[in-house]
Design a protein that fits this description.
123 residues
Length: 123
């Protein structure tokens, strides 16, 4: 078969993003964000151990607008990763594979993670 007559594999521009694929990508991305947030926790603990001057500097940074933004993003990523992980546990048990159930659970994961983030920051 000549090479110019072979069918080409569709690329990302051809596919329409679906909720399930977007949530899968988000699950991986939030795992990466949580890993970087763990480094912030280690830095914060290091500042505690280094003394009051270092702790005050870390405290001021985390209380700044940028620091609070990082903490809110971290909270959102953690809650999303938690709820989507629970969703995957149900899938491992064989529940929720039908398309309407997968979309419903995906929307529930998004709503639950937003609600939990709001509750954490209000309380």
């Amino acid at each position: 078969m000549p090479t110019n007559n072979r069918p080409l594999s569709p690329h990302l521009q051809v596919y329409k993003p679906q909720l399930t694929s977007v949530l899968s990508i988000l699950h991986r991305a939030t795992g990466v964000v949580i890993t970087f947030a763990a480094m912030i926790i280690v830095w914060w603990l290091w500042c505690i151990a280094a003394g009051s001057e270092s702790f005050n500097w870390a405290f001021q940074f985390l209380n700044s607008l940028f620091g609070k933004g990082l903490l809110i993003i971290w909270t959102l990523c953690t809650s999303y990763h938690l709820f989507n992980g629970i969703r995957h546990l149900f899938w491992d048990c064989g529940y929720g594979f039908e398309l309407d159930q997968a979309y419903l659970s995906g929307k529930a994961v998004l709503a639950g993670s937003a609600l939990l983030t709001i509750l954490v920051w209000l309380i």
